[in-house]
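Recall the central idea of this unit: under ordinary conditions, the amino acid sequence of a chain determines the structure it adopts. In this exercise we apply that idea directly, starting from the sequence alone.
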Amino acid sequence: MPESGVIAARPDPASSAPVSPAPSPARAPLVMIVGDSFTVGSGPVERWETYAAKAARELGWQLVTAGASGTGFVNPGPVNRTFERSFTEELAWRPAPDLLIVSGGHNDRRTRADRVNRAAKRLLELVHTRWPHTRVVVIGPIWMTRAPRWAHRVRDAIAIAADEEEATFLDPLGERWSRRLVLPDGVHPTPAGHTWLARWLVTALAGGGSGHRPPYG
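Accordingly, the structure predicted from this sequence is:
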C-alpha cells in the first residue's frame, strides 16, 4: 500500500485510445456601459437592479458598469467627472469589450446643443481610437415623464454625433412610460420601471436601432 494512503489508479488498457478534449464553453459577450443615475442606480434601485443589469442577465452578457449619478456628456455632476472622464478612468484601460453602450444626456440641461454634440463626438472618437473593433451603441436621454423641449434638442445633438461616428443610436424619448413606473422624485424609474427599460433595450438592440434619424440643417 502506498505510504501516502492515496490509492493509485491502475491504467485501463481499454482506455488507452486518445480522448478528444471537451469543447470549451462559449464566452459570454463582454459589454461595458457608461452613464448616469439611470445606469448606475438611484434611490432604492441598486446597480445590479438597473435596466442595464437586467438586460445583461436576459442576454447573457458579462457587464461592466461605469459612470455616476448627475453626470453627462458636458455636466460633470457632483463627482466632477463627465462621461469622457468616466470612460477614461474606469473603462479605457481594460481589454476591449464586444459592445460599449453610452447612455445619457438627461443631466446636460441648460447646456447648448452644440456643446453636447462636440462632447459626445469627442468621446466616441476616443472610444474608436482606443477600441477600433468594438461595437458602440448610444442611448439618448431617458425621460420617464413628458420630456421638455430642451431634452429633444440634446437628444438630436447626441444622435448627430452618433451618426457621424457610425454608432447605433437608440431613442427612449419616443416611448411613453406609465407614471406607476416612476419613483416619487418624478424622475427615476422604480424597480418595475427598470424592468420595462430593460425590455425596451433588448427589443431596440434586436431591431438594430430606434429608427430615429437626426435632423440635418
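The two ends are 88 Å apart (CA to CA).
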